[in-house]
Structures are given as C-alpha cells and as structure tokens.
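[INFO] parsing input record for protein disulfide-isomerase
[DEBUG] input buffer:
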Amino acid sequence: MHPPRRAALGLLPLLLLLPPPAPGAANKPTPCQRCRGLVDKFNQGMVDTANKNFGGGNTAWEEKTLSKYEFSEIRLLEILEGLCESSDFECNQMLEAQEEHLEAWWLQLKNEYPNLFEWFCVKTLKVCCLPGTYGPDCLECQGGSQRPCSGNGHCSGDGSRQGDGSCRCHVGYQGALCADCMDGYFSSLRNETHSFCTACDESCKTCSGPTNRDCGECEVGWVLEEDACVDVDECAAETPPCSAAQFCKNVNGSYTCEECDSSCVGCTGEGPGNCKECIPGYARELGQCADVDECSLAAKACVRKNENCYNTPGSYVCVCPDGFEETEDACVPPAEAEVTEEESPTQPPAHEDL
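[DEBUG] output buffer:
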C-alpha cells in the first residue's frame, strides 16, 4: 500500500457519487450518508481491534521489529476487511475507490486530523458538512452552527451539501429562527440563547400562561365567563344541532351526534331507556322500550287453525307446522289433507251427442 497520488484527489468525489437514484428509489442513501456509513464502520473496526496484536506468539518481538500493532498496516487491513459484507455492492465499490485515502489517513494524517469523518467526508471528498452547516460551501445554519434554529427546529440541509439553511420549526414554534411561539402556546422562558414555548390550556387560542384564566382569546367552542374561558354546551341550544334520530353529547370545545337506540323514535341519550317514544312493536316496560311479544297476547296474533306464532324483534311471524298443508284459513294436518283430496268430486266426462 502507498499514499494516494495528488492528481487523483479531484476525481475521488466523482467516484463516490454513484448514479442518481432511479424513480421509486427514494430510500437510496445520499453520497454523504454513504460516506458517513463507511466512517462509522471504520471507527467500529478500530474499536473491535483495539485489544488485538500480531497474533504470532511472540508479541513483544513482533511489535519491536514490525512496529506497534496499534499503528500497523496489518491492523488497517483487518479493519478494511470488515467494512463491507460481500453482498453489499455499493459499499465494496466505494471502498475500492477510497482505500488509498483511508490508508493515507491511517499511516500519515491520523494524528493531525483525529476526526476521520471531518477529514474524509467534509474536507477531502466534500460530500458532507459539519453539524450546523449546510450547502455546497458549508455555510452556517440560521441561528448559528452551535444552536441552529434556536434549538427549536431543523436546519434544511444540516450536515450535508444540500438544502438552503432555512428552519423547519418544531410544533409550537414559528419565525425565521424558531424563537417565537405559535398561537396556542406561550413563552415560558426566553433569553439571549434560549426560547421555550409551552402549550396553552385547551380553551385558549392565545394565552400568557397555562390556565383558562390566562387566555387572550378563547378557542372556538369556548366563551369568556368571569375572566375565564369555559366550554359552550352546544347540546343545550334552543335548536338542537343533531337530527331527530340522534342525541347530542357535549365534549370540551365541541359536541358529537350519536345514533339513538334502534327501539327509539327520538331520544335524549344512549340506550332504550332514553327513548322519547318507542317504535311499532315495542312498548315502554320498566322505564325502557322493550319488544312486545305478540304471540303471548290474549288476542291471538295468528288466527288460522293449527298455526304457530313466533315472536321476532318488533314483530312476529305465523307459520304452519312441518308437514301441514297451508290453506287460506287453516294449517291442515297430513291425514286430513289426504281425506280431503279423496272426497273432492271429480268432473264427469263430457258425452258426445249422437
């Protein structure tokens, strides 16, 4: 192995930049992510080999004669061999293109540049930026590189050669530096370096503190009463907000319309005990609408002879027993049906005139 040739340095970033992802390959890693991944594996390899030696049996002689294992090319080779799985084509392709760079850092530059990521990905290949910086020239993010976006948002392109450095604020924050509070939040702490926003009470649209008495303006569904925002009971309105087949249920800041029980004609609440009236086939019993058993009433529901009555929810059915023949006014047993057929007169044959 030998140090990289200077003439090749300008070409190496191009080797790292693999063809752009095809349509649908949105999860393909960026050049910076690939570089960072390689560095992370290299650093892990250094940890894994930290307590190893040449393994020849006479470690003291080997280290005196062949130099210390800690800084040796043997250890570097062991690290490089563990960087990529054999099936990981992109990793192996990148390693082949960048191996001389990694060797140069290991043998010549490690003491001067102890941070491999900064030297390799940021300064040499120029595919990443340091945290808190962005874009082709690694400019500082809004709010500075130490606390981008006041610590309350994400800097577009942070740590990469992409983005525009603008802030995407976390929930509750707004403004170019994410230092201001959105409606529904109040500033619980603010100084030259930090800004913290805390959620208002649910009744407040704007507020100066955490309770419903600190509201500057009430949220929709709430009204100011005695210096506090209180819930409006929409269900108590003169004109009901729900349909005739529903009942109104009040919730904080709003209401919901729930379906009445199937036994009700109109209702004031959930279940058959809150019906205004009962549907046909049901009658009020013990305070709630219950099915009427028409088959048990004194007045017979099924009037044909031998007919069986079966109760159903809200109604009933009349059915002849199995084997009985159904006629207009009776259910005829099998024996009677046969007799009836035998006794029925037959039409005499017509005679031809002679």
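[INFO] DSSP finds seven helices and 22 strands in the chain.
[INFO] shutting down worker
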